[in-house]
Design goal:
Elements (H helix, E strand, L loop, with lengths): L2 H13 L3 E7 L10 H6 L4 E5 L10 H9 L10 H8 L6 E6 L3 H5 L9 E4 L5 H12 L3 E6 L5 H9 L4 E4 L15 H10 L6 E4 L5 H9 L4 E4 L1 H9 L1 H15 L3
Length: about 250
């Protein structure tokens, strides 16, 4: 990870403050690129730049519809302009490429400049191995996704993360839902007991302030918001600003 990324995680570790990660759908015509400035203005620490996928198996209808609208080609290069903009944001938000391990990505020659973190959510295999290896060779840090029902292989992958682990809060695909997952604290503790030492962020099924507070009360080092963020972005700048500001206040304990 470059100096900027290291500084963020060092600061979080020293202060005990919490991280906010939010999904940004690259090449979605309903979510203009300059909305990245809103993410930064309202304290999003980690901006997940979502790459279009033909099979986004972890994602529900909101993210899937966004990917269908996307004008991207399902390539890492789709995130290029967003990465350049993120790297220049005044608040220091980090650019996280979120991608499924598609064949085209593994075959692509990509300039990783400006990428702080890679989060590749999908089954182990040659495509994923190539993608993660290329990122690491370029000095990019890695995050790992830990599913709701973790097996030993999932724990091993979580231990390999060099930046953070994204632990699934609610079972099922991404999306807006009511209620709380009462197993989250125990599952987070299981990750810690397995040897995971990097920050653990809870996400999937988190959208309301109360749900986000619950995730933090479970011991999470931060939260990930996705479907609701995209929904608010679709409504426009004011709705997105209000939502991110509200969630940032929860993160900051206000």
């Amino acid at each position: 990870m470059d100096g900027t990324g290291s500084a963020l995680f060092d600061r979080i570790d020293a202060s005990g403050s919490k991280l906010l990660s939010a999904y940004f759908p690259v090449c979605d015509p309903l979510v203009p690129l300059d909305y990245l400035k809103i993410y930064d203005e309202f304290g999003v620490d980690l901006i997940e730049l979502g790459i279009k996928s033909a099979n986004p198996h972890h994602d529900g209808d909101t993210i899937r519809q966004s990917m269908l609208r996307s004008t991207g080609q399902g390539r890492l290069a789709d995130a290029g302009e967003a990465l350049r903009m993120t790297a220049g944001l005044a608040g220091g938000s980090l650019g996280v490429i979120f991608a499924y391990p598609q064949p085209g990505l593994a075959e692509e020659t990509f300039d990783w400049t400006g990428t702080d973190i890679l989060l590749c959510a999908g089954a182990d295999g040659s495509h994923r191995e190539r993608l993660v290896s290329d990122a690491k060779s370029a000095g990019v840090s890695t995050a790992e996704f830990a599913p709701h029902h973790m097996r030993e292989g999932d724990l091993a992958r979580a231990r390999s993360a060099t930046s953070y682990v994204f632990l699934q809060y609610a079972a099922g695909k991404t999306g807006i839902r009511a209620g709380f997952d009462r197993s989250a604290k125990a599952r987070l503790q299981r990750l810690r007991q397995s040897g995971v030492s990097v920050p653990v962020l809870l996400g999937v099924g988190l959208s309301t302030p109360d749900q986000c507070r619950h995730a933090l009360d479970c011991g999470a080092d931060g939260i990930v918001i996705g479907s609701k963020t995209v929904k608010m972005a679709e409504k426009g700048r004011a709705a997105l600003s209000d939502y991110l500001g509200e969630i940032r206040q929860v993160i900051d304990g206000r």
